[in-house]
Design a protein that fits this description.
elongated, six-stranded mixed sheet, disordered N terminus
């Protein structure tokens, strides 16, 4: 994966497009429990990413098919290979407005100043989508001590 970043059991890939700001591959090995993927993890990825693919062991596929949104991709890890069960499609809900809420107030104010806006959080919605998305990915990467892969 060109421009990819791996963090334990997740691979993220940022994209240089206003609509497609990021893609994540959540990895669930055979020894992993599937419980963390339900609910909060699905919601968290669906809020931030344009495309999500769950890469899992075959034993997790029935549960994954039942629980992840239809727009998520499903890839099964088989001995020596990966088998795409379902291709990821674009998130049907533009995550950008929700992403802006991930910025801390100081980060949001700095972004607004850079774009000549008053430091009022509601002004974030007036910024171009790609500007918000780039700022959120950069802020999250900085907090994690990493870099945004583009």
């Amino acid at each position: 994966m060109s421009g990819a970043r791996v963090a334990r059991d997740v691979v993220t890939q940022a994209r240089k497009s206003a609509r497609r700001g990021g893609e994540v591959h959540e990895i669930k090995a055979a020894r992993d429990r599937f419980t963390r993927t339900d609910g909060s993890q699905i919601d968290a990825y669906s809020v931030i990413f344009d495309r999500v693919t769950l890469v899992c062991a075959g034993r997790h596929l029935p549960a994954a098919t039942a629980i992840v949104p239809a727009w998520w991709g499903l890839t099964v890890a088989v001995p020596g290979a990966l088998r795409v069960d379902r291709e990821a499609t674009d998130n049907p809900h533009d995550p950008t407005p929700r992403m802006a809420r991930l910025l801390w107030q100081a980060e949001a104010n700095a972004l607004l100043r850079r774009h000549g806006r008053r430091e009022v959080i509601k002004n974030l919605a007036a910024l171009p989508r790609d500007v918000i998305r780039e700022a959120v990915f950069a802020a999250l990467a900085k907090r994690a001590g990493g870099e945004v892969a583009t």
